């Protein structure tokens, strides 16, 4: 079961890269990354509403969420997690068609690695404060090198559009805060689906508002693609959330995060090799940047991973 859980986590990370490629392609076909984000997030919302409506525990959890927001037990600003999710999906739609999946993933993971230092240091919600260790600082430094290398090498190929790497970097930087908020909401609602449903609901509302403004400014959609898979990004996101909720109980957050990021980075490179966006190519430097990103994650988590390893059987045996 543990091996199956590890495989599920790795595949879950790979599915996030696939989702990014789908949303990026949809943004290119629409010529409107905001509309692509609305389709993706809205699709995920529909799936989660269907799940919540059929599971009694989730219906009770949603009731607890409404009550907690009304009484202030859950601060209203915790709903900002949905805005963070919306930002991330918008970034996919706007940038992957230009940067490629690999560069987008490197920017995201680098942001996650660096901002996790701050979130862990101050603690938040259900997360206790942790001191900043030398290995975590080293991991953040390696992540910065990986992004810098992506910018320097990619700037010769992408040119003036390289600034778009800031969007996934900011999105990745906000994800540790989002995870902490959703973890706190999950504990208080006693349900896994409810925080995700709240996240998708607010994110969809924010993206829809942005789309109204964009459409009012005269920007529309070029075409409606007929390929069904271009509309599957939201479904992939919803399934990923459900799988992660089960897998984390088997592996713990640290090992699951390492496997998720590994799957995401490797799948991103494969996608750029097999199904590159128009004008994209994978070079040796792409592999170097991706490798540095994986090293940054492993280095920043190494000490905690060793401490969290189970004790040998001899040490836990009782007579």
TrEMBL record:
Keyword Aminoacyl-tRNA synthetase: no
Stretches that traverse the bilayer: 33-55, 76-95, 101-122, 134-156, 162-185, 197-216, 228-248, 255-276, 282-302
Gene Ontology, cellular component aspect: plasma membrane
InterPro entries named among the record's database cross-references: YdcZ (IPR006750)
Keywords: Membrane, Transmembrane, Transmembrane helix
Xref: PANTHER family: INNER MEMBRANE PROTEIN YDCZ
Identification of the protein by name: Putative inner membrane protein
Organism: Agrococcus casei LMG 22410
């Amino acid at each position: 079961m543990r091996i199956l859980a590890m495989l599920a986590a790795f595949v879950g990370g790979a599915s996030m890269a696939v989702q990014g490629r789908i949303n990026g392609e949809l943004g290119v076909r629409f010529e409107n990354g905001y509309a692509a984000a609305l389709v993706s997030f809205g699709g995920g919302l529909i799936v989660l509403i269907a799940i919540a409506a059929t599971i009694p525990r989730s219906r009770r959890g949603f009731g607890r969420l409404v009550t907690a927001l009304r009484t202030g037990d859950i601060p209203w600003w915790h709903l900002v997690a949905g805005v963070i999710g919306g930002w991330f999906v918008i970034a996919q739609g706007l940038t992957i068609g230009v940067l490629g999946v690999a560069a987008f993933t490197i920017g995201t993971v680098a942001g996650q690695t660096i901002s996790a230092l701050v979130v862990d240091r101050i603690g938040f919600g259900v997360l206790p404060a942790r001191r900043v260790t030398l290995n975590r600082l080293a991991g953040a430094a390696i992540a910065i090198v990986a992004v810098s290398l992506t910018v320097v090498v990619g700037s010769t190929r992408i040119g003036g559009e390289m600034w778009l790497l800031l969007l996934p970097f900011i999105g990745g930087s906000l994800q540790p805060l989002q995870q902490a908020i959703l973890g706190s909401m999950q504990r208080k609602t006693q349900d896994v689906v409810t925080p995700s449903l709240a996240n998708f609901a607010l994110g969809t509302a924010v993206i829809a508002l942005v789309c109204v403004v964009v459409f009012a400014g005269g920007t529309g959609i070029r075409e409606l693609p007929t390929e069904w898979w271009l509309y599957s990004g939201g479904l992939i996101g919803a399934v990923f959330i459900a799988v992660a909720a089960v897998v984390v109980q088997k592996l713990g957050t640290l090992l699951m995060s390492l496997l998720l990021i590994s799957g995401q980075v490797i799948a991103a490179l494969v996608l750029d090799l097999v199904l590159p966006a128009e004008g994209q190519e994978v070079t040796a430097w792409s592999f170097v940047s991706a490798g540095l990103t994986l090293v940054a994650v492993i280095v920043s988590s190494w000490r905690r991973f060793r401490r969290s390893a189970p004790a040998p059987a001899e040490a836990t045996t009782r007579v």
